[in-house]
């Protein structure tokens, strides 16, 4: 009888330790990744993204886009304008929803 209780207690203890170790290892991995320096390939990738962001802000649009890009963009906008009607297609649409009237009307 005592052996059965010891085995059950050891199973519970083993489960609790296993959960605690998984939590600690998961947390440690996050902290370790933040603390260590980036992989050289990751660092190069992040640097290129930052460089593109600054160039994009300076250019006010796509980087290194030539006149053919602007021509294609204008043609596409004209085609969409003909297909879908009026409005500025370069901006996100503004939606205006009316509040529904939930008052009961007499019958």
Report the major sheet.
Answer: none
Helix content: 55-70%
What is the H/E string? HHH
Estimate what percentage of residues fall within beta strands: under 5%
Count of distinct structural domains: 2
Q: If helices are DSSP runs of H or I spanning 4 or more residues, what is the number of helices?
A: 3
**Measured distance between first and last alpha carbons:** 78 Å
Please report the total strand number as a whole number. Answer: 0
Keywords: CF(0), Hydrogen ion transport, Ion transport, Membrane, Mitochondrion, Mitochondrion inner membrane, Transport
Pfam families: ATP-synt_F6 (PF05511)
GO molecular function, one term: proton transmembrane transporter activity
Subcellular location: Mitochondrion; Mitochondrion inner membrane
Please, could you describe this protein's structure?
There is one protein chain. The chain is an all-alpha fold and about 110 residues long. The protein has 2 domains: about 1-35; about 40-80, no CATH class. The protein contains 3 helices and no strands. It has helices spanning about 1-35, 40-60, 65-85. It is flat. The N and C termini lie far apart (about 80 Å).
Keywords, separated by commas or semicolons:
hydrogen ion transport, ion transport, 67% helix, 107 residues, 2 domains, mainly alpha, mitochondrion, membrane, 0% strand
């Amino acid at each position: 009888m005592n052996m059965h209780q010891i085995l059950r207690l050891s199973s519970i203890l083993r489960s609790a330790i296993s959960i605690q170790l998984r939590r600690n290892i998961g947390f440690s991995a996050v902290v370790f990744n933040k603390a260590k320096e980036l992989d050289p390939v990751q660092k190069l990738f992040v640097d290129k993204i930052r460089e593109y962001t600054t160039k994009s802000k300076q250019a006010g649009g796509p980087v290194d886009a030539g006149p053919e890009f602007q021509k294609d963009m204008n043609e596409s906008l004209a085609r969409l304008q003909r297909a879908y009607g009026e409005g500025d297609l370069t901006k996100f649409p503004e939606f205006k929803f009316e509040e529904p009237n939930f008052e009961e009307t007499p019958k």
